[in-house]
Amino acid sequence: MAVLIFAESDSGFYKKSTFEAISYGRKLADQLGTTCIAISIGNKGTENLGSFGAHQEVLYVNELYQTFNPQSYAKAISQTAQQLDCNVIIISQTYTGKSIAPLLAIKQNASIATGVIGMANTIDGFTVKTTAFSNKAIAHVKLNQEQKILTIIPNSYQINTYSETSEIINLEDTIAASDINSTVLSTHKETGKIPLTEAELVISGGRGLKGTENWNLVEELASALGAATACSKPVSDMEWRPHSEHVGQTGITIKPNLYIAAGISGAIQHLAGVSGSKVICVINTDPEAPFFKAADYGIVGDALEVLPRLTRRILEIKK
Amino acid sequence: MKILVCISVVPDTTTKITFKDNDTTFDKSSVQYILNPYDELSLTRALEIAEQNAGTVHTITVGESDCDPIIRKALAIGAHEAYRVDAQPKNAPFVAHQIASHVKSENYDLILTGRESIDYNGGMVQGLLAELLQWPLINVATEINYSDQEITACRDIDGGRENVKSSIPCVVSAQKDLCEPRIPNMRGIMMARSKPLNVIKAIDLPEFTEITKYELPPSKTGVKLISAENAEELIDILHNEEKLF
Ligand SMILES: Cc1cc2nc3c(=O)[nH]c(=O)nc-3n(C[C@H](O)[C@H](O)[C@H](O)COP(=O)(O)OP(=O)(O)OC[C@H]3O[C@@H](n4cnc5c(N)ncnc54)[C@H](O)[C@@H]3O)c2cc1C
Ligand SMILES: Nc1ncnc2c1ncn2[C@@H]1O[C@H](COP(=O)(O)O)[C@@H](O)[C@H]1O
Known about the structure:
The structure holds 2 protein chains of 2 kinds. By secondary structure, chain A is an alpha/beta fold. Chain A has 7 helices and 17 strands.
């Protein structure tokens, strides 16, 4: 019995959510009195994962893992779980994680909980809190099978650091070309930007910003803060901003420490994607805008005037 | 070309969520149910692909008889035949096993699902189904094309998009931008009445997971307003009190 964590990385860098997942796995392993093992597939970051709580690390470097195929990744994790006798598998709920987790659930004949936002309660059975109804409720899910899989929402568990070094273990990998059942033809990634799902600080703009010509105000504030940028659905529909920035029910769900919304009304479908944010600040000319009800701080005013003042103040403080 | 579209019936997003029986059960009374928005997209795209390839489109829903009006809507949009597995959709593995069991008795070339159902937002059924059937999975697709026994698709990945191809049969899940959802017209609604809605019995399965309790997320204590003239104060609070940067 051990806890296994998928250590997701991208181009030689672990994702922040990977460190969260490892810290989660370690806490759980301590709670269950067992070992915490991390597995990297295809590539890895530079850090030793012992610093985040892993006792052991497994690495598979076969070329076949260079492009992402849910089937082969699930196979690698499953064979590791079986060889090292792991019965809980932890995966960050990224696009990659979401494609692997259900395949693993079948391979392991496991109970699976998605949208996990808190540490498991293992006193009486095994129960986790998960988000439900697009962030409008929390469900307590009990996992009945011996084998368990959890997908954890990024930025919902704190990273802990340890002064430990993990032991690297080598396992035989049985992956073969026949395990790859779809082919990646080409990949396009936005470069030089903080990915929205990983950002701790996010500045978002809505239709109230009037047009693309004003987006420099959002970007200047974001760059002063080191934040990522986001937008409401109509803004991406009108192609003022790329679709990858659209947050909400039909877009990305984010959970940053800070979400500043400028010129966004706060429709329920928008809130569905951002209401998990720790601190929410709203700038809107309309004091009746629904977003104020979901906010911690609010400024009733014209975003076109307020945003530059916020940027200036940050630059003063940082000087 | 025979396509199966998985249709889930979910509460409308604007529904107020409440619980009963000491917060152990979701209160369905006064909830407005809709066809899951992502499943509207996959259904529309399935119809387009079927039209170009002289194909047929079946739908399947795991749910009780209160789902029938929504299933009729799918038929009105254009699906040829519908199946309903008569059981409460307890959780994603339960649903996936039911659908897989149906698929084994029919020859489908392609299964389309939504990226996620907007009730539990799991996004799991498609992957569970793909693995149960041992078919390839293309998850969160913004484009799906079919020709010569092959599916090519564009899928969302972390921080970008990727073009992929797979042989058929395979499972593909639909993301927004896939297409403009079709709306039923009068003729479609009339025709839907005489299309088959087959009810099938559920297979028995173990309880993989159970929901023991619900709670509402902690609500905000109230907004602190800062006047626009002193906008800078917001930054001071975020820096000094919230220590966010
Ligand atoms: C099925 C479905 C799914 C949806 N999914 C999403 C989703 O994922 N994400 C999403 O965002 N929306 C989604 N929507 C749309 C959502 O309902 C709203 O229409 C949308 O969020 C509104 O965007 P907005 O706030 O930018 O624009 P508006 O509603 O037009 O609001 C603009 C706001 O800006 C304010 N304003 C105007 N001028 C200024 C100024 N100078 N300074 C400051 N404030 C100003 C106005 O007072 C107003 O509150 C969905 C809708 C449906 C039906
Ligand atoms: N009860 C159900 N009946 C049929 N299909 C479903 C059901 N629940 C989910 N699905 C399909 O699986 C997709 C993902 O659902 P989920 O895993 O619940 O987020 C949905 O978009 C549907 O296509």
